[in-house]
Amino acid sequence: MPSEPVPAFDPERFRREGRAIVDWIADYWHAVAEKPVQSPVKPGWVRAQLPPQAPEQPEQLDAVLADLDRVIVPGLTHWQHPGFFAYFPASTSGPSILGELLSAGLGVQGMLWATSPACTELETHVLDWLRELLGLPDRFASTGTGGGVILDSASTGLLTAVVAARQRAAGSDVRDDDTSHSRQLVAYASAGAHSSVEKGLRIAGISRQWLRKIATNAHGQMDADRLASAMDADAQAGRIPFFVAATVGTTSSGAFDPVPLIAAAARRHGAWLHVDAAWAGAAALCPEFRGPIVAGAEAADSWGFNPHKWMLVNFDCHTLWVADRGPLVQALSMKPDYLRNAATESGAVIDYSDWQVPLGRRFRSLKLWLTLRMIGAAALRQRIRDHVLWATEFAGWVRDDPRFEILAEPSLSLVCFGLRSGDEASAALLDRVNGEGRVLLSSARIGSRHALRLAVGGTLTRREDVETAWKELSRLA
Amino acid sequence: MPSEPVPAFDPERFRREGRAIVDWIADYWHAVAEKPVQSPVKPGWVRAQLPPQAPEQPEQLDAVLADLDRVIVPGLTHWQHPGFFAYFPASTSGPSILGELLSAGLGVQGMLWATSPACTELETHVLDWLRELLGLPDRFASTGTGGGVILDSASTGLLTAVVAARQRAAGSDVRDDDTSHSRQLVAYASAGAHSSVEKGLRIAGISRQWLRKIATNAHGQMDADRLASAMDADAQAGRIPFFVAATVGTTSSGAFDPVPLIAAAARRHGAWLHVDAAWAGAAALCPEFRGPIVAGAEAADSWGFNPHKWMLVNFDCHTLWVADRGPLVQALSMKPDYLRNAATESGAVIDYSDWQVPLGRRFRSLKLWLTLRMIGAAALRQRIRDHVLWATEFAGWVRDDPRFEILAEPSLSLVCFGLRSGDEASAALLDRVNGEGRVLLSSARIGSRHALRLAVGGTLTRREDVETAWKELSRLA
Fold first, then answer.
1. pLDDT tens digit string along B183-203?
2. In order of start, what are the domains of chain A with their CATH numbers?
3. What ipTM was reported for this prediction?
4. For residue A346, is pLDDT > 80?
């Protein structure tokens, strides 16, 4: 006979255990700076510590916490470590973590407005707030034909934009019939665009041969003349230029594509322009950085960035705005009989399942709301200013050291650099520095060179951590 | 000048505020049964309560908590209310909420094994545990050619399976060239399959005309003979039958497609067989229910279900297993230079970004791990047994009342029924019952009839809540 079932939710037990977990997390953040940034474990080590079968009978929280310390923490690369400078930051904050906790604690599912009106309306509202904070044009406001939605990632944002673009290219009459085309659809992005462009197109059934990777100039920016020529050539050959992805802040080097020029080419062919500002978008909070970030946005059909990178909201939180929600909803709305309801039929509400790949969704706007309210826009701006300043200082130290060289013009808080003695020496230095455990950097190819990347933006990162990174690099070079 | 920035993470402040949120959630669960299940607010009410702009300066947690009570809670449809019987449950549990909190608190991002080995290995391990608990065949174990992954939803699981199926149909040589086909790909699902099949195919660029909706029999099950005929006809016409979606537990009525017969047809044409057991899958924990749920799984290429429906893990947690991870990884792997690392190149690790649409991912296996450990398999089984028993009792009450009739054979914990006086009367009864606020049911079409659906499975739901549902229906009929 099974034992008496454990109550699935006992509020008093939750109160007790919730406090224990909150304390465990607070202790983790207290101590994270003393851990090696990168996990030292070998493949298979974590699994080897775990029992081969799931437990039949309930265990106590203490046993779980002990395993967290013994098995999980040693197996983590600590993204919240103040010395984490790799990739782009996944910065989080107390309010954001609490927002995620609230979302889980409420346990509502916002696939339709009717399945929790607040889940939908808070999201629409907070994305209108954020649009204004970033200085994005009115066309993305929900009060007009556009609006914003929270998705899991910039990759998914791009796929979502591709699907809307294809719908628009096909015309509104094909929805229930056929979204295939007798003429081939062609997409465009720079050779420096993120891999998610190729991946998103592939998922959408548009193979690599129909993605034109437009060459970049010496600064890693898409060459708008080549884009225009490629689009013209495809159109003349009877193909349909349907989608252009512009990047504001490339992953490798933080390059900004010339969005206004790209927009002009896209407009001439009626192609959908998607702007991926995944990392750099957060810096549009600051008026002094905003100009090049939002340039051309008034001609973009969709524009997305990740508050989960540099705006203190924990992963996952990608925010995507569209200027016209029509083709998006037309492409992604499914209303089987079991989802029909009066609010939907009234036409007066947003059903966010019509704006995304999945049907279900959790209450992610809570963490964005808590972060904006409990940190405030002024402090979010100040953090970005600090990070840009520290990265600029770091770039100065690199420039002043004859052993090193800057490999791409620093962009906001990202610095790409290497050793003058060559790529192999740079790669070896990266391994040594990361192996010491005090900081973690990543790498990228810049042109023909192997560059080290330092991206400032961690939640706990202070100026002195950036100094530590430089001291480690300098010492081990 | 901006004010002094608020520290983004102050452990002592987090400790204090975290406790306040934990207490707020505990209080919410104490009181949720007294609230109307369905939010009574009108479209626009929530937004009208919120200020038009984001705050510049930080606010205190008290202000946020006050707004949660004043604005958010009235705008919720309470999925965790014991009287929530609509759609399928989104059951959660204390351990799962705490797992989500831990995931947010650690703030690691597991796109690669190297970016947090524990994030990857715990997921692989717990999905091997779960595979065994469900009695799924060995072919889905990570120790062979297969393995499991956590995705956000069954819709995304289906899209992921479609993309892998297309890759396999195209052959391993086309990855870097072209995934388009000179011969048309055709997919198959029953007319009773979830709307996510059509949506996933559409996202993948396969239009509705290439989805054959195979007729169902009187029990809502796919007619396997018609499937075989349709596949044969397409193959004879030079098209490629590449993907079959079978459903174990349809959304409308909980019908089980005859997976072994479907598998035989799929195998004959080399088509990928995906089994969607989104809701019913959890019941495979119980040996007495397992047989029909896992029947034919030994011939499936992918098999998915949602622990976030009926297994006490909060949304989002879809678990997808594949028998051969080859085509999946081939279709979805992108390794630009900025993600290259020694562990990936060793071939000894899983990089889960190769198994999913997005690049980034959070540490979702924590909540599955905590739920399995702190609730235990025995109690998870007992809960499912209880729910099936109570649904069976409810169906008996419906049958015994001459005003009512059962409209589909009850399936596990789902009962579809209506008033003998007709569909309009049933619809009116649903509105009245839901309007009273003590319970919430949803509806579906069953054949030509408008059915009321009662799905038992809520975290707090007891037998007496099912009785309340019946008393309300009986009183208002």
1. 899 999 999 999 999 999 999
2. 1-34+39-75 (1.20.1340.10), 108-361 (3.40.640.10), 379-476 (3.90.1150.10)
3. 0.96
4. yes
Asked if B477 and B404 touch (Cβ cutoff 8 Å), the reply is: yes
Residues A244, A227 contacting (CB under 8 angstroms): yes
Helices (H) and strands (E) in chain B, counts: 17, 11
Q: Summarize pLDDT for A175-204 with one digit per residue, the tens.
A: 444 445 568 999 999 999 999 999 999 999
| Chain B, nearest residue to A80 by Cα | B107
**Yes or no, beta carbons of A178 and B209 under 8 Å apart:** yes
Q: B145, B139 in Cβ contact below 8 A?
A: yes
User: pTM for the complete prediction?
Assistant: 0.97
- Chain B residues close to A376, C-beta within 8 Å: 6, 55-59
CB B26 within 8 A of CB A14: yes
Q: Which residues contact A279 (CB under 8 A, 6 or more apart)?
A: A88, A249, A251, A254, A305, A306, A309, A310, A414, A455
At residue A4, what is the residue type? E
Contacts of B449 in chain A (CB under 8 A): none
Task: Give the three-state DSSP class for B183.
Answer: coil
The closest CB to that of A105, out of B2, B28, B56, belongs to: B28
Which residue of A62, A78, A116, A372 to mutate against B (max B Cβ within 10 Å)? A116
Per CB-CB distance under 8 Å, the chain B contacts of A374 are 6, 58-61, 64
Calpha distance A430→A107 (Å, rounded) = 43
Which residues from chain A sit within 8 angstroms of residue B346, using beta carbons? 43
Distance CA B476, CA A45 (A): 60
Q: What H or E segment, with its residue span, contains residue B149?
A: strand B147-151
- Find the closest chain A residue to B451 by CA distance: A338
Q: Which of B72, B359, B374 sits opposite A118 (nearest CB)?
A: B72
DSSP class per residue in A53-89: S--SS---HHHHHHHIIIIIGGG---TTSTTB-SSS-
* Neighbouring C-beta atoms of residue A292, cutoff 10 Å: 17
